[in-house]
Amino acid sequence: MNNTIQYAVDNDGIALLTIDLPGKSMNVLTPELMEDLETTTSKAAADDAVKGIVITSGKKAFIAGADIKDMVTAYDRGLSHKEAAEFSFGLNKTLRQIETCGKPVAIAINGLALGGGLEVCLAGHYRVLANDTGAVLGFPEVNIGLLPGAGGTQRTPRLIGFRNAATMILQCRNQRPEQALEMGLVHELAPVAEVVEKARQWVLEKGDPEQPWDKKGFKIPGGGLMHPGTAQTFMVGNALVAKNTKHNYPAPISAQSAMFEGCATSFDDGLKIESQYFGLLLAGPVARNMMRSLFVNKGKADKLARRPEGIEKSKVKKLGILGAGMMGAGIAFVSAKAGIEVVLLDTSQENADKGKAYSEGLLKKAIDRGRSTPEKAAVLLNLITPTTSYHDLQGCDLVIEAVFENQDLKAKVTALTEAVVPESCVFASNTSTLPITGLAKASQRPEQFIGLHFFSPVDKMPLVEIILGEKTNDEAIARSLDYIQQIRKTPIVVNDSRGFYTSRVFSTFTAEGIMMLAEGVKPALIENAAKMAGMPVGPLAVTDEVTLELAHKIGKETAAALGQTYPADPSQEAIQAMVEKLDRKGKRFGKGFYAYPEGATKHLWPGLGEHFPVSAEQPDIDELKKRLMNIQALETVRCVEEGVVTHAEDGDIGSIFGWGFPPYTGGTLSYIDTMGIRNFVAECDRMAEAYGGRFQASEWLRNRAEGNLPFYD
Amino acid sequence: MTEAFIYDHVRSPRGRGKQGGSLNPITPMDLTTQVLQGLRDRNQLDTSILDDVILGCVAPVGEQGANIARVAVINADYAESVPGKQINRFCASALEAVNAAASQVMSGQSQAAIGGGVECMSRVPMGSDGGAMAIDPQTAYNTYFVPQGIGADLIATLNGFTREDADAYAVASQQRAAHAWENGYFSKSILPITDHVGEVVLDHDETVRGDASMESLAGLKPAFAMMGDQAGFDDVAIQKYPEVEAIDHVHTAGNSSGIVDGAAAVLIGSAEAGEKMGLKPRARIRSFASIGSEPTIMLTGPAPASLKALKLAGMDKSDIDLWELNEAFASVVLLYMKLLDIPHDKINVNGGAIAMGHPLGATGAMVLGTLVDEMERRDLETGLVTLCIGAGMGTATIIERV
Q1: Distance between CA A462 and CA B215 in Å, rounded?
Q2: How many whole angstroms from its chain centre is CA A305?
């Protein structure tokens, strides 16, 4: 016994198993807990005085999921497919033992049960769920590259049918108590204080110790695999998986296959099939990448892993925002949502009001969708004060400027602000490209000057890139991180450079796509290559979104600032031609690489072929995919080499949450580690030869490859 | 090598493939039985000469299941020594059955055999047999499965065939079929189907609409747009054909083959068997071939299958006087004409499945019979018949008159 379960038998002969992991705020499914589950249920089963078993949790949640601590290292440990399958089958054996122990087992689900926690519940013969909005049931496994590997893919369809099971397992949609009851996932809802008693009553009064699937004549609800409706469900489901994953994520189709193959066989063989598919996933690189970046490292970032030590925890009470445009308005919304008092300043009251109206719009939508109430909305709006007066910034703990990307203007507002705010105030710039050290020169307190780069739309994008100027001190870093935690965003911390990390790397993706266009690659092939590589949007489409005009402007300014010529390469030439010659400046202007016909879906502008003639011989799609991915990874490496990115975690998280680098890779640096740094350098060499010097690997990278040093140890 | 000859062909009319369709009350067994009996009776055939009856069927489940060929042989009162087998080459099943019968004759292992097929789509709906291709997750995912209609629309997209092109082809098919019916071009092969008391329930192809026009077809909705968009199939197809930005859904119920009920049978035999049967051969089978092609687009097999059959026959495409390609979808025929440079007045001259329907397991024998009849009527020497096939295949047969 590992003391994860309290065991008690009452006068009625009910063995109550209370799961309560010592020293943890939440129960998670650990090897120790599994062992104790097996021991305690066996003990109850063998005890003649015990009529039945009730399992509940001693914490607020039932079980929050499996502990992935050991799973995330599986790939790097070189765990074989077979060994990984055995790991899952061990869990399956234990839960199967519980449901066939011969005594009725009821689960009193007093709070949320996710992943492995829900799988424990499904192994009981009866489930009472707390009628509490927080008590949701769900399978998040597919989101981190795995599948429910403790019977979830077998019990769920046998319990609620294929369609509902797919919604839960493939789409990872959590079910609220009333939904769970309706679809048959649980048998009964009860107030949280009564779940154990209801479970006891069932054991005493009904107490059927056999699962439906172990009864003779069992049929899958909604029809088994021979049912025409089921065939339809799978036919469409398979295509949707292919559509959504672009064949980059093995988990959804594996889960789908485990359900399909396992439900046409005996329950025990079904569990084996599930474990085999789980083994393939756990021992593969995608699950490692997704667990490590999306779960472990994102979790660490959210807990402010990069926060300097020894600085008192802070909280922003009053925030000033300079510039009530799209970004300023968005920052105001997310900050007010976190309960922060916001002063939203612009040059005219009209503009400032418009910035506040943005929050009103978002809140109206939220109310319409039942996600907020007029009362809550009013409280939030009350926190935002639109103004034109710098005096209103008095008492701000933090001021974020989000004015136009113009160095002089930024210098001016910095000075005006510092004249009124307290000396302790941190001043942040939301610039997406201008070096922070340069902007900080306008500040009287450059050590309190920092970059906070938000992404658009601010209310949806989870990342904030913190940029440190040369003089930025630890306190400014700590307080900025505290603020980002306050507004529930995920921070990365990088050092100063033009475009910092995210903008700089992302621009290589769009440039590479436009370069392909200039080379004569068919535009649709470019866009599809990006999407099939897993990027959310093609390079031409996204350039249209941010506008070609802006890309043109940044290109010119960067060249001027660095004393270079513009246009410097065929991609810049193409942008220049689009803006200056063809007057196609982007989506906002109604025309760009795409045409935007009214009332119809956009499509690639047919005239592109005239200005960028399509070659007779088109490259292989896989080569295009590699180009688009490698150039981003290589630019990230340069950021590491130059010290812009100091932690691999920041590089990976920034790439996934900042610009949508595909999560299956784990991020730009995990992408390289996954293919092997030597292979990556060999690919860069080949591409430098074929496409130009931008693919050239530096000496630093070569040395790293020589030593076969991955970005993660 | 023994030569294989076509001695006769009989087919049922094609009935609208849903409840209310004239053949819907007739069971697949009854329909097949009537066709086998019709072929026997009009040739006064002593069926004991037959070494096999091979029938195609694409959804061989339920009342079409369990080897309908052998059971129909028994039910039709053929000699009990005649075996039967059901085969499935999807849409080319019945042509494949004829080719298989011919193979047995050519190899000397059979003297005479029947090839044909049956599909009562109103009673055993398409897809009733399930299949790993679409529903098994690993298979569908790894092979980029999309339904045929998406493949047909993809062919149109890749080749620039517009909705107007497809509709114009469909109008011609309807007009040709109506004209052929008016002038009795099909009468040699049609066997009216009767009910239990001997009343004729259908003596003509039920879905022909000679009055179809560009205007009437223009009103029809794209049949595969919603499936392509909401079920994700367009995206799957584009992953296989990434040069395509979006699939142009040109096919409708009006320019795709109709869902119908029908059965057909072709009598094949050696010269010697012909003499024994006292029958004159109508055509010789010169060559036949089946090929596999890219499975996602699925429907581009006819051209390579035809070229393979031509090569086997030592012929050139210019040696073919008349062509038949099953009108599964307009784009399939438009592509075939483009690739082999065949003028429209030499192919599907009496219309096809767009007008008369496509009873999956039977069509191959029907188009072959149509070709034989029309070659005789026009007094032409050579003909090639071919079909596109699910999962990316093509089957073609070359015949010449004797």
Answers
A1: 53
A2: 18
Instruction: Provide the residue ranges of all domains of chain A, joining segments of one domain with +.
Output: 5-283, 318-497, 503-621
Please give the Cα distance from A677 to A569 (Å, whole number): 28
Q: Which two structure tokens, joined as six digits, stand for B286?
A: 């010169």
Q: What pLDDT is attached to residue A357? A: 97
Q: Residue A561 pLDDT more than 90? A: no
ipTM above 0.85, yes or no: yes
Pick among B157, B243, B244, B248 to test the A interface (most A CBs inside 10 A): B243
Whole-structure pTM value: 0.95
Chain B closest-CA separation from residue A571 CA (Å): 21
What pLDDT is recorded for position B108? 98
A537 touches chain B (CB under 8 A): no
CATH no. of A318-497: 3.40.50.720
**pLDDT at residue A380, as a whole number:** 96
B133 close contact with A: CB closer than 8 A: no
Residue A498 has pLDDT above 90, yes or no: no
Closest by CA position to B117, among listed B83, B89, B139, B157: B89
- CA triplet B56, B57, B59: central angle to 5 degrees? 160
Give the whole-number percent of chain A exceeding pLDDT 90.
97
Residues of A serving a catalytic function are 453
Active site residue B57: no
Query: Nearest 5°: CA angle at A186, between A269 and A66?
Result: 60
Note whether A671 and A711 are within 8 A (CB).
Answer: no
Mean pLDDT, chain B, rounded, equals 98
A575-601 confidence digits (pLDDT tens): 999 999 999 999 999 999 999 999 999
Of the CA atoms within 13 Å of residue A484, those in its CB half-sphere come to 31
CATH class of segment(s) A503-621: mainly alpha
For residue B162, count other CB atoms closer than 10 A to its CB. Answer: 11
Contact A618 B236 (CB under 8 A): no
Equal fold, A5-283 vs A318-497: no
- Is A235 in CB contact (< 8 Å) with chain B? yes
Interface size A-B, in CB pairs within 8 Å, comes to 87
Q: Which residues contact A132 (CB under 8 A, 6 or more apart)?
A: A111, A177, A191, A192
Give the closest of A240, A527, A621 to B231, CB-based.
Answer: A240
Q: How far is CA B64 from the centre of its chain?
A: 17
Q: Which residues of B touch A229 (CB under 8 A)?
A: none
Q: How far is B70 from chain A (nearest CA, A)?
A: 26
B224, B227, B239, B249, best to mutate vs chain A, most A CBs in 10 Å: B239
Which residues of chain A are within 8 Å of residue B236 when distances are taken between CB atoms?
A: 239, 242-243
Does residue A557 register a pLDDT over 90?
no
CB contact under 8 A, B236 and A235: no
**Residue B388 bears catalytic tag:** yes
Q: Out of B9, B57, B91, B120, which one is annotated catalytic?
A: B91
Q: What dotted CATH number matches A5-283?
A: 3.90.226.10
Q: Quote the distance between the C-alpha of residue A395 and its chain's center.
A: 35
DSSP strand pairing (A449-454 vs A426-429): parallel
**Of B13, B71, B7, the residue nearest B39 (C-alpha):** B7
Residue from the list B130, B233, B242 with its beta carbon closest to the beta carbon of A621: B242
Does residue A602 belong to the interface with chain B, where contact is any CB pair within 8 Å?
A: no
In which band, very low, low, confident or very high, does the pLDDT at B174 lie, cut at 50, 70 and 90?
Answer: very high
User: Which one, of B377, B284, B387, lies nearest residue B322 by Cα?
Assistant: B377
Q: Which residues of A277-313 are buried (b: 16+ CB within 10 A; e: fewer)?
A: bbbbbbbbbbbbbbbbbbbbbbeebbebebbeeebee
Residue A433 binned pLDDT confidence (cut-offs 50, 70, 90): confident
Instruction: Decide if A244 touches B, using CB distance below 8 A.
Output: yes
Say how far apart CA A59 and CA B71 lie, in whole Å. Answer: 67
